[in-house]
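Chain and backbone:
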Amino acid sequence: MNDPTDQTASPVLDFSVVTREIRSIIVRRRELMVFLGSLFVALSLFLDNLLHGSLPPALASIGQQAFFNYSIMLLVPSLLIALRIMRLHNGMTINGVFYSQILSKHGDAFADPLRASKLNWTGISTNLFLLTVLNVVLAAVLFTLTFQSGWIIAILIGVGFGIALLTIFLYNHHRAKHFALKHIKQATIEPINSEAVEDHNAQSLQDANQDMIGITAFAGLILFSVLESLSGLGDVTYNGDIAVSDVINFGPLIYINLALVTTILGALMYRRLAVAAGELSLKLDPTDDPFQPLNLTDTFFGYLMICALFGISLHLLIFMLNSANWWIEILANILMISLYPLRMWLTRMRFQQKANQ
């Protein structure tokens, strides 16, 4: 062990410390996803009451600036959630590199710190950040519209917010990547035992399964909240900071596209977690075959549930734009469903190639 009073001692990578931090990040990220969904649902109900004049007399004046108040209430928490997810992503990147380095030094030929440091656009943190940024963009657009600025300026400002946040996210990922890669060059690796690795894999498999359920619930929560909001847009009595005609004409399009993007990114995250769960299953039981493309597992049925949510969102969009294009809806649903067995098949081929090397 290094002497803690020796300032020249090299840093130490301890397996238990690194894996404990990874699981802590996963738990906090999952709770932020629950909070984000709850925030959207609660504020959607609040907005619906504002638009229908259902608030008590003491708060009736809020209804005259309904979207100003709603946008602020959505913008500030969503922005803070986005920044927190970005910090958690940095921690996951750093500890992911540390974890790969530890396994690599203990004989795992498939562990690659350099690959672990790269940004994964199908990763949970990345896509959860994008979903949060989507809320920020929506809030920024609505906030700008309350000043009678027009849709073009409002959209430009909203997109500007999104690009700024994405730029900060990429910059911070770059910093975390270089910090971790520099750190492992000087680090001393503490010895590990197979029991600790197996215990971590078992807990990580449980985390992956919980995240898949959480993502399905999150996508469903957003879609059902959107459906509830859509059902109230037909009899709006509101007259305030955004024209009623804009609310009625553009509200359904914004809501439906929000639900559609949520289900698409949810399906992307789900497939990524399904692969991770399969890899962990193989590590725990090398005789297992979790990547059979047409195997009707619980994981596959969970993916079909997200596909159903996607299908509902797409059906609403197609019906609103042009119900005659039903064939686009059928093809898109077939494509979405087929992406899961395709991903499983590609992963299975990759593992077979590694086994033959």
Summary: The longest helix spans residues 244-284.
